[in-house]
Design brief:
mainly alpha
Length: about 80
């Protein structure tokens, strides 16, 4: 084989190796991205459920219209803003 052809074959093989390595790296990055999307979606679901629960508790406490009475324990005065 001529030296020119050998050099061309070596260059071609190097390019194929580089292409294959780049393809493997792309697949790895895509897998990592899918994992990140799964985590983000799970966190959004947790936040949505937390918001629903917070709104539910807020709605429940807003419906409670009863007068505050003297607390059973003196330390609860602090919570009511009545520091003695």
């Amino acid at each position: 084989m001529c030296l020119h052809v050998k050099l061309w074959v070596q260059e071609y093989e190097g390019a194929v190796e580089d292409r294959n390595h780049t393809g493997i790296m792309l697949i790895d990055r895509n897998d990592e991205l899918c994992i990140l999307y799964e985590k983000a979606n799970a966190q959004e679901e947790v936040m949505r459920k937390g918001t629903v629960q917070t709104l539910s508790v807020h709605k429940y406490t807003c419906c409670m219209h009863f007068p505050l009475q003297t607390p059973a324990h003196p330390s609860l005065y602090y919570l009511l803003g009545k520091i003695t």
